[in-house]
Amino acid sequence: MVNLVEKCIYVLSVIYTVPREYKIGGHTAAPNSIRYLVSLKSTSGQHFCGGSLVHRYWVLTAAHCNIGAEQMMIVAGDYKVNIFEGTEQYAKPRILVIHPLYNRSTNNADIMLIKLRAPMVLNKYVSLAPLPRQGTGVAEGHVCRVSGWGYNSLEGGQVPVTLRTVTVPIVSTARCNSSDSFNGNITANMICAGYSTGGKDACKGDSGGPLVCDRRIYGVVSWGNGCGDAKFPGVYTAVSRFRRWIDQTIYENMTNT
Ligand SMILES: *[C@@H]1O[C@H](CO)[C@@H](O)[C@H](O)[C@H]1NC(C)=O
Ligand SMILES: *[C@@H]1O[C@H](CO)[C@@H](O)[C@H](O)[C@H]1NC(C)=O
Ligand SMILES: *[C@@H]1O[C@H](CO)[C@@H](O)[C@H](O)[C@H]1NC(C)=O
């Protein structure tokens, strides 16, 4: 691919700017191969973030994907995000639950649960995402997979955007937090993944989507410094730190339909 690194010049949390970016590296995923992945769309139909279906009524995503419940539509069973394929299911959010520790200046605890107004139907195109147990980690170098529809539409043009996926190895917190990289800005609620040579990364529009290791959602695409930069891996919310919060939130809102 052409070098898109320079063009993708800001943190993943910038989701309002003109969408331009492809996922850096990687390739197109097979149709409906990642069935728990959902697209968060604005009411005008513009994809702006990814998410994972963790319960028929609940989507896991990043807190910085919060544009307001009224502005959002959740689409499951999507493949080409800008065209109707007949496999999609649509739901409006009923409530958004942002983690109480979320801090938008540090990106700490960048995690949000969305309860849907109506449950998604599980079928050949839609499934639930398996989560890691509370407190479990992934070793440095372990290869995980990040997927999403990271933007490639051209200023309002309706180019069909196909789901893309890349593999990335886990980078130790020590290295990611070192003065050679994010220099103290990595909290215990974050994990990093990327190649020391750069080139493959999540990017804008992938925010909120899953980083999958051993078939479980260990990360939620959160932020970075550019995309595909060798010095700066992608930073993900460490889902295993929030497993208890996820279960508790779903349980507490069981009857709140
Ligand atoms: C976010 O973190 C910064 C830096 O640690 C801190 O100064 C600020 O008070 C925090 N904001 C909230 C809302 O917790
Ligand atoms: C770390 O955070 C500080 C304060 O938010 C910021 O000025 C600095 O550029 C960040 N450094 C890196 C490498 O991200
Ligand atoms: C990252 O470095 C900062 C500054 O040294 C430190 O306060 C923080 O605890 C470190 N993060 C982790 C997860 O160890």
TrEMBL record:
Signal peptide: none annotated. SMART domains: Tryp_SPc. Residues 23-251 form the Peptidase S1 domain. Keywords: Disulfide bond, Hydrolase, Protease, Serine protease. GO terms for molecular function: serine-type endopeptidase activity. Its EC number is 3.4.21.4. The keyword Protease applies. The keyword Electron transport does not apply. GO terms for biological process: proteolysis. CDD domains: Tryp_SPc. InterPro entries: Peptidase_S1_PA, Peptidase_S1_PA_chymotrypsin, Peptidase_S1A, Serine_Proteases_S1, Trypsin_dom, TRYPSIN_HIS, TRYPSIN_SER. It is an enzyme of class 3 (hydrolase). It is found in: Secreted, Extracellular space. GO terms for cellular component: extracellular space. This is trypsin. It comes from Neolamprologus brichardi (Fairy cichlid).
